[in-house]
Design goal:
By secondary structure, this protein is an all-alpha fold. It has helices at about 1-10, 20-45, 45-60, 65-85. The termini are far apart.
């Protein structure tokens, strides 16, 4: 292990290249969307918060608005039913559906 550490110390560092600005912007939007998902999870409820998150991420990855919304709604409902009915995991429905 000491030999490997010495070889790593002698190695020339790789040049670091940052991704394009568009990629950094998408990463920032993803971080904000995930933080918003975590913050609004109990207030909006699992189905609605998951629908919104899936819509935002779908749009970021190039899906049309219609496809992103449809996959968000279906995904939010199917995942809620799977967790609630099949796995018996209690998830919040939010203030509007409670």
């Amino acid at each position: 292990m000491a030999l490997c550490a010495l070889l790593l110390l002698r190695r020339q560092p790789d040049t670091v290249t940052w991704p394009p600005l568009r990629t950094l912007r998408h990463l920032a939007i993803m971080v904000v969307a995930l933080a918003g998902y975590g913050a609004s999870f109990e207030w909006l409820g699992f189905p609605l918060a998951t629908t919104l998150l899936t819509f935002v991420l779908g749009r970021l990855f190039g899906a049309s608005a219609k496809a992103a919304l449809l996959s968000g709604v279906v995904g939010g409902l199917v995942l809620y039913l799977a967790f609630d009915r099949l796995l018996d995991v209690t998830l919040p429905l939010g203030v509007w559906f409670s």
